[in-house]
Amino acid sequence: MIPSALDRPGDLIVAVVGQTASGKSDLSLDLAQSLPELMGAAAAEIVSADALQLYRGMDIGTAKTPVSERRGIAHHQIDVLDVTEEASVARYQIAARADVEAIHGRSGLALVVGGSGLYQRALLDRLEFPGTDPGVRAALEAEAEGPLGARGLHARLAALDPESARRIDPHNARRIIRALEVIELTGRPYSSTMPERVFTRPCVMIAIRHEQAILDERIGRR
Predict the structure, then answer these.
(1) Three-state SS at 54
(2) DSSP class per residue in 124-166
(3) Closest C-alpha to 20, from 70, 66, 62
(4) Which pLDDT belongs to residue 57?
(5) Phi and psi for 34 in degrees, rounded to 5?
(6) pTM for this predicted structure
(7) Average pLDDT per consecutive 10 residues, the chain (222 residues; last block may be shorter)
(8) Element (H or E) spanning 78, and its range?
(9) Which terminal Cβ of the chain has fewer Cβ within 10 Å, N or C?
(10) Beta pairing partners, 45
(11) 207 with 27: CB under 8 angstroms?
């Protein structure tokens, strides 16, 4: 039962999280049918937070719910990219938050469902995505490929932002370059842009848990 303190559907997100094959999609459909009447919402709509379900044509491997089995419930952020396009968490954040805003504008209840943790957090939590600068990035990439190498850039990162340096492998040039790029562009530590576990809107999160043997059996059937 949704806590009475969060009984305003216009402000509320219900998030369904869980491991692969845990049953998130089925539960979300059940909730989408039952919650609107309980909460006085016009209807519930589902916003996917699964990075792979963004792609058209990737239906079987992602266990995408067929349109015929969606019970007439609107789904968003599914089949919005071609396989030749690169998914972007920053772009997803903008689009998915716009979907939630539109659902609330229709006096509806937004259900966020999916198994990609970073995508869920980008939608639900305080998380910013600093911009990029091709010139800054190119200069850092040149340094990484030169005598300084990734380890040298990592040492620079450790001096500027020890917390980020602890999190990033010294051999992961791509992440090191991104961290240094953000520091140069913003003047702030890269670690300051990491997600805060603070919801941007009131949210009830429902987690599904199963024993590993059950999950293995379900994945095998899939």
Answers:
(1) helix
(2) HEE-------HHHHHHHHHHHHSSSHHHHHHHHHHHH-HHHHH
(3) 62
(4) 83
(5) -95, -35
(6) 0.76
(7) 49 87 87 91 94 86 86 96 90 96 94 88 89 93 94 96 95 94 93 81 86 59 58
(8) none
(9) N
(10) 110
(11) no
